[in-house]
Amino acid sequence: MFQFGYFLLIGFVVSLLFLNLFFRVKVLKLYRHLVNNRIQFEAKHMLDQSRLESEIIPQYPEHADQIREFVRKVRLSISIASLIFICIVSMGLLMKYYF
Predict the structure, then answer these.
(1) Mean pLDDT, the chain, as a whole number?
(2) pLDDT for 51-68, tens place per residue?
(3) How far apart are CA 30 and CA 82, in angstroms?
């Protein structure tokens, strides 16, 4: 059982690394597009959808789809990475105290 926990923990770490590389490639393509078109917004706009829709999208209506896609992918990568991180920490704590 202890060995299974190690393999599961290693699997979570590898999946976190793969996720990082996958989303980095996807997000960087959109980021380059936004930078090339001089589209600027802050992290608070990425975290608050209503603020994004009311302040940024009206300034750049021709790039609205790319902005929304970029924000969606960043949020998704943060959510999945947080979930995997919680799994890694919980597996580490289980292995430390129960095995």
Answers:
(1) 88
(2) 999 999 999 999 999 999
(3) 22
Q: How many CA atoms lie within 13 A of 57 on its CB side?
A: 16
CB neighbours of 77 closer than 8 A, spacing ≥ 6? Answer: 19, 20, 23, 27
Give the C-alpha distances (Å, rounded to integers) separating 40 from 27, 28, 34, 44, 54.
15, 15, 8, 12, 14
Burial of 21 (0-12, 13-18, 19+ CB in 10 A): exposed
Quote the CA–CA distance of 83 and 48 in Å, as a whole number: 20
Instruction: Name the token pair of 16.
Output: 């976190």
- Write out the chain in H/E/C secondary structure: CHHHHHHHHHHHHHHHHHHHHHHHHHHHHHHHHHHHCCCCCCHHHHHCHHHHHHHHCCCCHHHHHHHHHHHHHHHHHHHHHHHHHHHHHHHHHHHHHHC
